[in-house]
Amino acid sequence: MPLHLGMLVLVEVGHLLFKRAYAKINLTLDVLGRRDDGYHEVDMVMQSIDLSDLVWLDKRPAGEVTIESTSAAIPVDERNLAVQAARCFFEHTGIAAGVHIQLEKHIPIAAGLAGGSSDAAAVLRGLNELFGTGMSLEELSQVGARIGSDVPFCMYGGTAIARGRGEKLTRIPYVLPMFAVLVHPRLFVSTAEVYQGLRPDDFTDSPASAAMVSCLAEANGQGIAPLVRNALQRVTFDMYPELRALAEKVEAVTHHPVHMSGSGPTLFCLAVTSGQAQRMYNALRGIMKDVYICRFVGAEEVVGQTAAE
Ligand code: ATP
């Protein structure tokens, strides 16, 4: 690759622009109920982690939006959320130009880690810089919300409470120096099917986000794990009993509680020190392949110095 991957957020070479698209995990995911429009009303605490896709943007003539990806598992056409983001950008701004997108995928696909939404958000932030449009993150979020409910969170990243369909954000202005050790079982989980599997007793009127945010505000890393919960976990575990069995195995190996991100199937354990995370990682790597050691990432790192606030 011609670019300096060590630089975290942005490198510009001629017309080529580079962005990192960060994954997220859910520290909480409560479902309040089903809405008349068919969506579910959620209340979640989302946290960016430093597992990231790499996105390069290169100017092209008007109307030309193309993409190539290192992963053969995602579509490289109009179905790709990064392509949809570029189309939305040109439509919204009226700029007569196009873009070629190169995606180096590292975030597991359909894993509950918002990889596609994060790519879309990175493309919108990147195009805003590439074409000097000076849109605020708020405006970019509104454009991104048309692509998917997780895109507004991914636009800012860091830590936030997400409500509504996930697009209504309350940003939490601090990030704990914590770690998550992820296990990605190679299962394909459909988010839509998981939501369809919710029962009335999975819904709650008292989401855990307020307690979680208090814990984060007190910098109480140890207090976080007991508060982590995910209403979708029961559904996904019932749909995939092998995932429940894997979670039990991970818990037995790490001696730490195991949680699921989004609609799954990614599982994670939290660690308050890098040493603790490394020990969990070593233990898990002994028995399985797709294990990732990640640190929590704040919004500053996601949006970088150059984006308009
Ligand atoms: P969500 O929880 O929002 O459904 P996820 O993290 O579970 O997201 P993604 O990795 O975003 O899952 O993929 C969900 C679907 O989106 C997959 O079926 C995939 O083919 C499609 N997709 C479209 N564009 C992308 C992209 N750039 N990266 C990953 N998946 C993409």
Query: Low-confidence spans: pLDDT under 50, at least 5 residues?
Result: 1-13, 305-309
The sequence of SSEs as H and E is EEEEHEHHHEEEHHHEHHEEHEH
Q: State the share of residues found in helices, binned by percent.
A: 25-40%
CATH class of the largest domain: Alpha Beta
State the end-to-end distance: 30 Å
InterPro entries: GHMP_kinase_C_dom, GHMP_kinase_C_sf, GHMP_kinase_N_dom, IspE, Ribosomal_Su5_D2-typ_SF, Ribsml_uS5_D2-typ_fold_subgr
Active site: 24, 150
Domain GHMP kinase N-terminal: 80-158
Keywords: ATP-binding, Isoprene biosynthesis, Kinase, Nucleotide-binding, Transferase
Secondary structure: elements and pairs:
Elements: E1 11-13, E2 16-34, E3 40-60, E4 65-69, H1 81-93, E5 98-104, H2 115-130, H3 137-145, H4 151-156, E6 159-164, E7 168-172, E8 179-183, H5 191-196, H6 209-217, H7 221-227, E9 229-230, H8 232-239, H9 241-254, E10 259-260, E11 267-271, H10 274-285, E12 291-297, H11 299-303
Bound molecules: adenosine-5'-triphosphate.
Adenosine-5'-triphosphate binds next to helix 1 and helix 2.
Catalytic activity: 4-CDP-2-C-methyl-D-erythritol + ATP = 4-CDP-2-C-methyl-D-erythritol 2-phosphate + ADP + H(+)
Domain GHMP kinase C-terminal: 222-285
Pfam families: GHMP_kinases_C, GHMP_kinases_N
